[in-house]
Design a protein that fits this description.
- By secondary structure, this protein is mostly helical.
- It contains five helices and no strands.
- It has helices at about 10-25, 50-55, 65-80, 85-105, 120-130.
- Helix 3 (about 65-80) packs antiparallel against helix 4 (about 85-105).
């Protein structure tokens, strides 16, 4: 499709002709996804759909503000501590995330409010012990 639109021909009819000729040559045959519904049609409209799709296809995630990233890390650490193999491992996980939380409270992080306080290590370890029984 390197040819230019002839002068005096309406743009739409030129485009229509290009598409029709390409179809006749079979250039649209065997395209991936042919005959299948478009993915995401059932989802609400999202202006950044293409950004999310690209991030997903590249195996990346949307960057979070530091406070939200720490909240997510804290939730993951708590879940990891609850599933730890040993009491010492559970304690280490909670203490490490608590160090990060204290540092964030002391220095401050950008983003929405942190709304996070260090976990009670002894309570988390006690919960871990209860799960082991």
């Amino acid at each position: 499709m390197t040819e230019r639109k002839p002068g005096g021909m309406p743009f739409e009819s030129w485009v229509d002709r290009q598409i029709r000729e390409a179809m006749e040559r079979g250039e649209f045959d065997d395209l991936p996804g042919a005959g299948k519904p478009l993915p995401g049609l059932d989802r609400p409209h999202d202006e950044l759909w293409w950004v999310r799709q690209k991030l997903e296809s590249e195996g990346l995630s949307m960057p979070l503000p530091p406070t939200l990233a720490l909240r997510r890390d804290a939730e993951e650490a708590l879940a990891e501590a609850r599933g730890a193999r040993t009491e010492a491992e559970a304690r280490r996980i909670v203490e490490e995330i608590n160090d990060r939380i204290r540092e964030a409270i002391r220095k401050g992080l950008s983003g929405p409010p942190l709304n996070l306080v260090p976990f009670d290590v002894e309570r988390v370890v006690a919960e871990w012990r209860d799960r082991q029984r």
